[in-house]
Fold this protein.
Amino acid sequence: MTDDGLEQRLGAVRERVADAARRAGRDPAGITTIVVTKFQPVELVQRLATLGVQDFGESRHPEARDKAAALPEATWHFIGQLQTNKARQVARYVQAIHSVDRDPLVDALAAWTGTVFLEIDLTGGAEGRGGAAPGRAAALAERVLATGTLRLAGVMAVAPQDEEPARAFERLAGVAADVRRVAPDATAMSAGMSGDYETAIGFGATHLRIGSAITGPRPARG
């Protein structure tokens, strides 16, 4: 097979994650790198698995379902916006959902025993993204805890495009502290993507969602 640089990119990201963790006085072993494989072929996912990748992220239900079926031994994270009527279907094949942002979605997942992250909107609604308002995070955490089944890992967010990532992740760390006052075990923070993951580590990110820095550009879609 022609060398396309996949192994080198993966190795470089792993080194940068470890370096950023050490700069922040953290143990690199406490950081999970989720490789985002949206639009990438199943063959690439399988190659990544042979290189030691265990955690994969997807954001579209049919594509995620099919890849999880091809590699069921991996840990699958759903990181995209999730429609309430698709929640139970997605819960059948993933171990974690990073985009829980409203009460009806919590209710739809209430019978599940998987892991959830509360998605927080750091844009104030300006970018039309999903995510709960920061001020709603504690109440949403209480809603998750009330199910008695869901495991609340912590919070998740995407840094706004028009803001320095450090400022956004600092705010997210504040929201995470609010959530921990309600749910002391919810210590995880899903933050940081290909362009800002080193900054996210400095503010406490435990789960990074990295795509193109590892996989390379997404394939052209017809």
The beta strands are 32-36, 55-58, 75-78, 96-100, 115-119, 151-156, 188-190, 207-210. The longest helix spans residues 6-23.
